Amino acid sequence: MNITAIYGSPREGGNTDLLLAEFVRGARAAGAEVAELALRNYHFSPCIECGGCNDTGSCILKDDMDQIYLYLRQSPIICLAAPVFFYSVNAATKAMIDRCQCFWTGKYLLKKPLSRERGCRGKGYLLSVGGTKGQKVFDCVMLTMKYFYDALDMEFAHSLLYRQIDAKAAILNHPEALKEAYELGMTAVKG
Ligand SMILES: Cc1cc2nc3c(=O)[nH]c(=O)nc-3n(C[C@H](O)[C@H](O)[C@H](O)COP(=O)(O)O)c2cc1C
């Protein structure tokens, strides 16, 4: 089984990176092949709202999103890790999500949902971390992710969310969180 793990944070070795690395370790231990993509290593434009995908369900911009699209189209399991920035996901993650408007168009305007191309509905996962303890800190993130996975025509299967984790690698002081991420990776594969 192929899994795509997307590291959304600009901070290499930060909290969501460490959580996702554990998810990946768990998924590999359960027998999955995992592709790891760090958005900070890809260069792509935000959506320019040109309407170029309306007739085809494909984005007309030519940049590194072309590589990411391949994984988004084909993987039956995707796990995205992204920190909370100003109550939403960080900018690179949001830019990638906005570039998935072509999948929304494919699904809702052209009636060609990605699940048909993928051969299954597939499952999406989220790992997120915020520095504060605000009760609503993940509200926008969760809504954004719900509609991101909907555009990919996947079930938003599970999320792990951790508050009050701020300094780089502070999540290492929370071994139970790392264990949860590892176990989620295993569960994602075993079902
Ligand atoms: C630009 C910026 C905006 C942030 N906004 C929030 C926020 O709205 N709420 C919050 O709880 N934490 C916020 N944080 C803190 C991060 O979510 C926190 O440091 C997190 O651990 C970063 O994860 P990472 O190491 O995976 O990048 C913000 C941090 C930055 C740099």
What's the topology here?
Blueprint: E1 2-7, H1 15-29, E2 33-38, H2 65-74, E3 77-85, E4 88-89, H3 91-98, H4 101-109, H5 114-118, E5 123-129, H6 139-151, E6 155-162, H7 175-190
Parallel strand pairs: 1-2, 1-3, 3-5, 5-6
Antiparallel strand pairs: 3-4
The structure holds flavin mononucleotide.
Flavin mononucleotide binds at residues 9, 11, 14-17, 83-87, 129-132, 137, 165-166, 168.
Structure notes:
- With 191 residues, the chain is of the alpha/beta class.
- The chain has a single domain (2-190), classed as Rossmann fold.
- 40% of the residues lie in helices and 20% in strands.
- It has seven helices and six strands, in the order E-H-E-H-E-E-H-H-H-E-H-E-H.
- The chain has helices spanning 15-29, 65-74, 91-98, 101-109, 114-118, 139-151, 175-190, and strands at 2-7, 33-38, 77-85, 88-89, 123-129, 155-162.
- Strands 1, 2, 3, 4, 5 and 6 form a six-stranded mixed β-sheet that branches.
- Helix 6 (139-151) links the parallel strand 5 (123-129) and strand 6 (155-162).
- Helix 1 (15-29) packs across helix 7 (175-190).
- The chain is globular, with a radius of gyration of 16 Å.
- The structure holds flavin mononucleotide.
Query: Which kinds of small molecule does this entry bind, naming each only once?
Result: flavin mononucleotide
SSE succession: EHEHEEHHHEHEH
Gyration radius, in Å = 16 Å
Strand content: 15-25%
CATH class: Alpha Beta
Q: What name is given to the CATH topology?
A: Rossmann fold
For the sheet with most strands, the description reads: 6 strands, mixed
CATH architectural group: 3-Layer(aba) Sandwich
Roughly how many Å apart are the termini? 11 Å
User: What is the tally of beta strands?
Assistant: 6
